[in-house]
Amino acid sequence: MKKLQVQGVILIITAMLSAVLLSACGKNPEDKELIPKQGTKQEAEAETKIEADVEAETKSEVETEGVGSVDEDWDDFCGNWMLVGFEYSDSIDDTEPSVDHSYYYAEHEWIFSEILIYDEENSLYADYSRTGYATESINGMALVKQDPTSDGQPVARLRNRRDEKETVRTLTLIGENELRYCEQELGLEMGLEHVMICTYLREGSKEMEQKKEYQYVNEVTVSTVQELAEAIQNRTKIILKEGTYNFSDLNCESIKNPNIDWIRNYDGLAEYTVRNVQNLCIEAEEGAKVELSTENSYARALGFEECQEITLRGLTCGHEVEPGYCTGSVLYFNHCSHIAIDNCNLYGSGTYGIEAYNIFGLTIDDTDIYECTYGLVWFSAVEMAAFTNCDFMTSEQYSMFSFIGCYSIVLDDCKIIGNETKSEGTPFITCQDSLSVSFENCLFRGNEYQVFLEEGYNPPTNTIVFTNCTVGDEMQDLDYPEGITQVSYR
Known about the structure:
The chain contains four helices and 37 strands. The protein has 490 residues and is mainly β.
């Protein structure tokens, strides 16, 4: 009798376990949203009739949600994506790059982030990581189909149960190698909305070679100085047709651009300054000879104040005045960050080729500076600046290089030729209250001066280092710092 009772209990338990297992074998309703690999639908049709019914119901719901056609290649999401830049908007409905957003280049902000998207058991998942201002790592987020964009670009939500009530993360495949990641912070209780819009590029793609170009929303081609003045806007790349752009030809009162300040002097000519602009490129058209100039001897040829992420490329800039009559530098920067000067020619009679104050991040590549009447470079409170493969030539009067209160200045593979320091007692190079200033692989030739280097009032706080440099100035009885080899060019 006891044996029969035990068998009965076992049968009841077995039946209950079978029911639980059968229930567990059914699809999770959320699984229907996961992005499948190609061929998943055909495999599903081979399953049991119950599963086929669930598949039909799911298909109906998917068509209603408009999450994309079955022949879309969702595997294009797969790969390793690297962050190149980001911006912020103030509305959860504003998820597109815009001139109204300041764009932050990830490398300049010391932020590193990547998204690895992969397929696992016929569905797509993402591992997200970021280091910088804050460190965050989330693995195994499922990609859930969303409505495509109006241009038909596939969109997916990253399902992360930990924060999806406060944070909505979406991915949009813009092109083969570009991915837009939006992180929407919902603060409805406080009436706050916040969106971070990030641009990721596929690791190793050709687009990564041009990653800085993604900061620009607009591209404008101009052929007159008036058009140039009006085109200066945030997140804009300006292409200049061949020709001369003389700022003295501008009617300053006709300029309606709030990004340009002007001051008119007694002779009627004005000085123009670009102010408070972010993500701007002024570039010569490929193969074109472009000159930016001014006839105002008191004006800077081109000036920037309170600007970020500015690029000047392929330009010739200077003053159209008699040598010795100019009191304005060629390029002037004040309270700016991340400035790039590439393949330019900066000529006098500007006082200095480059005059800069309170700058962080300045790169000058393949650029010639010549015929200046005070000196070549004047830096005050400049941090992280680098000259590479630049020529400094035929300038005169005071110190050719002045570094005042600077940090981390490097001149690498540069030629300093035919310059003259005429002022008695003025050194060719001045370094005051500065740290980590260095000349590397540089050539000095045909220059004239009485004192080569003066390190300021407190030499122990000033470090200027010469590495693998050569001087052939043929100056008599001068001692040069360690790291310079003196040779003769007779």
